[in-house]
Amino acid sequence: MASGNPYTLKWGIMATGGIAETFCKDLLCSPAVRGADDVRHEIVAVASSSSSKRAAEFLQKINGAFDAKTYGSYPELVVDPNVDIIYVATPHSHHFQNTMLALEAGKHVLCEKAFTVTAAQARKLVETAKAKKLFLMEAVWTRYFPLSIKVRELITSGEIGTVFRTIGDLSINSNAEEGSGLSFADSHRMVNPDLAGGATLDLGVYPLTWVFQTLYHLQPEQDKEAPTVIASSNKYTTGADENTAIICSFPGHSSIGIASTTMRADTDPENVVPAVRIQGSKGEIQVFAPAYRPTKYRVVKKNGEAQTFDVPQPADPARNSWGHGMFWEADECARCLRDGKLESATLPWKESIVIMETMEEALRQGGITYPELITTDVYDPKSPLNTGNQ
Amino acid sequence: MASGNPYTLKWGIMATGGIAETFCKDLLCSPAVRGADDVRHEIVAVASSSSSKRAAEFLQKINGAFDAKTYGSYPELVVDPNVDIIYVATPHSHHFQNTMLALEAGKHVLCEKAFTVTAAQARKLVETAKAKKLFLMEAVWTRYFPLSIKVRELITSGEIGTVFRTIGDLSINSNAEEGSGLSFADSHRMVNPDLAGGATLDLGVYPLTWVFQTLYHLQPEQDKEAPTVIASSNKYTTGADENTAIICSFPGHSSIGIASTTMRADTDPENVVPAVRIQGSKGEIQVFAPAYRPTKYRVVKKNGEAQTFDVPQPADPARNSWGHGMFWEADECARCLRDGKLESATLPWKESIVIMETMEEALRQGGITYPELITTDVYDPKSPLNTGNQ
User: Fold this and answer.
1) For residue B62, which of A355, B24, B36, B246 is within the disulfide window of CB 3.0 to 4.6 Å?
2) Quick check: B324 contacting A, CB < 8 Å?
């Protein structure tokens, strides 16, 4: 840990939905509870796209940062001179335009996953951040968990030998009680193509991040191999994918990743079958559900010897024992900025782009398409995705 | 159960390897132990391709049928007038030629899986059996287990609602202790392309049969839908596939099957994670490893309520408590022949062909090829696969 005063990162929060609430509650937890004495976080501004009243209500919900500025539009937020970094917590349909808005205003950005709707959008974001020398990171929070770091270390140390296969799933049974539909209204972001709805972009990104952090991320840089991607999807009545399976093949490394996601069944109704399995010549590592927020893993050696490890999220007693786990990625942002880094080594730009290429290819093979408004990679500050005038 | 004397089926056993031994030991179990009083089995002849001495030694190994004729060639076996049905227990490279040899001699056939090496071979076998009015069945023994029958009944009865996904795996960690190879000699049938080696044909056929019996077999006949198949394979140094993943998509039924197999890792070194999962709108059925011989399944309802059912194989106390489970398919053969049926309703010819088409397509996409001698669909009684002169 660094000596002296902790580095303080000042956050501007773009959007006031559920994920923003969870993230901000994590920002309000004491870093000391998770053993971080080198960084701290301040929420200095919050914006709703529709009204500053919503932003003010948001501060009540998160029960903190009561001095934060509250805005009723995103363009106002991104020009607030007190903000260091924007947390883009809008639906993924909006990520490209919203992140561009922030970058163009000279702000660093932590952007929720799925990073974008298309790979071209992801490339454009990265080019822009690079050109403007701004920090940019996709908010794949799970990667920054001590559990994930430990799993990657175990693989690197050879604990399970050569890894040949990773299988991951994130599925949530969302069937309606009656009829053959899902429980979501057609306008809901989970199934609405206008909001880039569908299983792959919303849920599939998690099993994919396990495939990537185990089969791609740990490859030596000099023979980094993007996967060959094959995929199949079943379409919901709205046109979004409801059930998708993706095979990522890394022939140069003799490994195969299988990522699956469906809104038609649960990963496991009992939550006892591992959600992720990393299988090697000397055994396997099992990561338990949910794939996005695991708190338990098990190392099973080839001979059947096994041990389970619990890695609970640290909870802050001063914050009603809150602690969801998004603070790890926030700390990463702070450390990168403190150290003058524009990207995180744990999820480099190149890797976010390869993952977007993978999802784009999977969706293409599944016959899933999204409207021009959310797939364009031409930045438009006046896009309704930025102005909220829809 | 039928009244009167049981129907007796007289078997001729082609090949004397491990699978033939297991099958014959099952034939020697008393049908009464498994509650079958309507059929019985006699082993009346056994053939090795190389010497009658081997066939005689085989009778010692199975410890029974000591009066059976012993032959040193397959052509001799298939013309034995006392034989009703030939059990083809050769490597799958040989199945097409060996089964043709038997059919051409007017014998009914139970042929081990994988049925053939190519779909065209499977079609040719079926055409031949049909033309000659002979019984022919692929020996997918697992399908005839009371456990499998129960699982299919549970699905049909709506116990887990609409089935949207089946995931199955059969993998065996066969890495060599030293180096990067597998533990098999390159000439071993598991990896030798001359013997149609590779994970898909040898192991993958089991997860596929779970995909098919749950997502295809139970479809109403009038809208039977063969899957769209995508697959990826890693090749072993011999050219056989060592690691394969297959997605079978049934878009007309909104379902996806994922079948995987590798020789580089175990399905689960502990044998506690289910090998097969059939996932529906109201819950899932988990079938425990190994996928080829499960003795336990678990029904997990959507709300997490779960129950495990043990279905051990009945063991014959008079046969040293033997009972592997291949007798169920033998009984099916006997009943079909007794009732004048040429194919089994549990695995109709059409379905064996669709499964072979699936594996052929998977292997094609994986870039796996086999030599002409074992892929030809031209019958040759003098083929070294029939004469043993290799």
Assistant:
1) B24
2) no
